[in-house]
Amino acid sequence: MAVWLSLCAFVLVVAYLLGSVPTGYIAVKQLKGIDIREVGSGSTGATNVLRTLGKGPGAVVLLIDCLKGVTAIALAYQLFKLAPLYNFFPPTVDANLWQPCLATLAGLAAVLGHSKSIFLGFSGGKSVATGLGTVLAISWQVGLASAGVFAVVVAISRIVSLSSITAAIAVTIFMIIFHQPLPCVLYAFFGGLYVILRHRSNIERLLAGTEPKIGQKVTAQAEPTDGQLT
User: Which of 17, 48, 49, 200 is the most exposed, fewest CB within 10 Å of its CB?
Assistant: First the structure.
């Protein structure tokens, strides 16, 4: 049992480190020589990269951040593929119960890593893209449905934060609609709640009518060490 628990812990640590890789920070630092946390919204995520470097780099950062979440979940699934081959399973382990639990914990670790990156002094983004990657890996139907909600809201409102918050709420509903296991539903709920809490300042600006829309410039005064979108 000790070996099995150690392997599970290893997966969670790797998932956190994957999430912690500051893609946006690295991209802006390498291409423009500046700290992205000191420009625009102060975000390390794709929205601020878009504002700082343009559509191409913003899209690449968005994709990589999403893949971090996919990879974190894939690692958990891979452990359960290898475990029978090397007799890692203790007699008391029920794979049907452990797999969704470990996968969702890995997802949470990646989401936490993105927003609290060990490489940036435990600062970062708001984990939307990484969270989307984890959901896509758990259930592509839920992931695509949630991404669809995001796309519709952003097309209507032109406000990324509002779209992110709406999608964070919708993901739990879609997990239930598509009959996902209870651990996945709970992950969607608590992960979505975490993303919403990370948008506290955005919610305040939404209520005040001052939240910037796509294409508008913002100043790095609200959250100089936290993220805007991802």
Answer: 200
